[in-house]
Amino acid sequence: MDPVLSNSQATLIDLLCVENKYINQERLMDNAGMLSAQFFIEKIKNPFNKKVLVIAGKGNNGGDAIIMHHYLLHYGVDSKLFILESADEGLVQRYKISNKFRVGEINKETIFDYDWIVDGIFGIGLNRKITGRYKEIIEILKGREIISLDIPSGLNCDTGEPVSPGIFVEPKYVLCMGFYKYGNLVNQSKQIFNSTQVLDIGFPKISKLISNIKTYLITRKDVKDIVIRDDFLRHKYKGLCSMIVGSKEYSGAGILSLLGSLKTGASYARVAVPGKTVNLYSSVAEAVSFPIGSNDYFIKSNYSAILKSGFLSNEKPILIGPGLGAKKQTNQLTSKILDYLKDKNNNCVLDASGFEPLYYGKSIDDLPKNCILTPHLGEFIKIFPDFDFTNPLEIYEKILKKLNNRVLVLKGPSTFIFSTTGKVYIINNGSSLLATAGSGDVLSGMILGLLAKGYGLDEAAILGVYVQGLTSQRYSERYSGHSMLATDIIENLRSSFNEIYA
After folding, report:
1. pLDDT of 394
2. Which residues are paired to 180 by β-bridges?
3. Which stretches of the chain drop beneath a pLDDT of 50?
4. What backbone phi and psi angles, to 5 degrees, belong to 471?
5. pLDDT value at residue 283
6. In this predicted structure, what is the pLDDT of residue 353?
7. CA dihedral defined by 466, 157, 26, 198, rounded to 10 degrees?
8. How far apart are the two ends of the chain, measured CA to CA in Å?
9. Which CATH number fits domain 2-213: 3.40.630.10, 3.40.50.10260, 3.40.50.720, 3.90.1720.10?
10. What CA–CA distance (Å, rounded) separates 341 from 371?
11. Alpha-carbon gap, residue 485 to 478, rounded angstroms
12. 222-501 falls under which CATH superfamily?
């Protein structure tokens, strides 16, 4: 797992490195500049035939840019340096950068003389509006091929949002020094750029420096490490799971969840559905469908029939929500079911309409203790109306406290998993193809299937989200980057799991 730092944590690490004599500031900056230059040579096609303009502002970020320019020249790249006001001229002298490799001015015409721009204008500490010459420079960089150092200039390091609307650099690559920063992964950052490379510039292990890191980016290795060995002696009932889903209006959601669970690891799925919709679910031959009542949606009086069916009494994982709809009678039934499960040992997944009781008075503490909630941002805002997720750092602790060891999977371009351990995991491998109707239903079914297979709450959430993201990546590569259906996710899960299990 790769640590994700705030501005204050990143600044503290720099100071602690120097104070504890792990590595001095000069060496850190030299490593940053050298590795950034090496990245350019290794990653950019025909690097020695490209003209590069390095723009350096003040502070460490500008210093990294100046040193990168030095190493680009050293390696034989055609590089020019443009230093904004207040940049570190002492570094220019120390690295003996000749004036013939500098430019005194750039504008919207001369910027086209360069194939690549290195953005070292602002670093992670930017917290003020961008005006004047800085604004002009950033605006003329629009549409150019850019590499940003640490974070694109104009973005807030902690929120990933522009400090001044519309005034920010849009790079092709971001080179992150030592560790990811929140602004590399959250909010608008994924829209602005989609490739971040962390450079190992010489920091010691983060545990030697600070101990209160709570946020981590999940990597492929992390996912492979949590994969459990297959049990060749297992019986189909060991992988049993149950679902309470569906209505006539939203029957497809429940079917997608059902298929997602079966494709992911559930060996036996039982699904309770409103009586008038049972024929739709009977089309899934591998599942056992239980018609409840005689309506096309669930009503409060169906509670006794669900209890008699044994859905809630076998301590097997259960999914509640997809396709239930928002009718008052259905919400009352859902609330009664959650009350029954509160002190049981069932692992419970709540999604979609399963959140309705939370909108009308039920609290998180009223939910089953072994519960995974899987809202998208709109649902999250309704569950936690007082929390503003545009500034994640301010609400992480509040969310974890509110969950009280339950798991929350906040779905989005970057998905956040608030875990039972008090850590927050970010999964950033999904593509925009997942913004399609039913993908959330598939995910809740996948998580249910992984729970049925024997994974814990945290592990099921991590593996489900990561594999769905991987599926979207592979679909884009093999078939189309234009669009994908929820059924396409289901059909391609097998190859994604093979890739992870290999």
Report:
1. 78
2. 4
3. none
4. -60, -40
5. 85
6. 97
7. 20
8. 20
9. 3.40.50.10260
10. 10
11. 14
12. Ribokinase (3.40.1190.20)
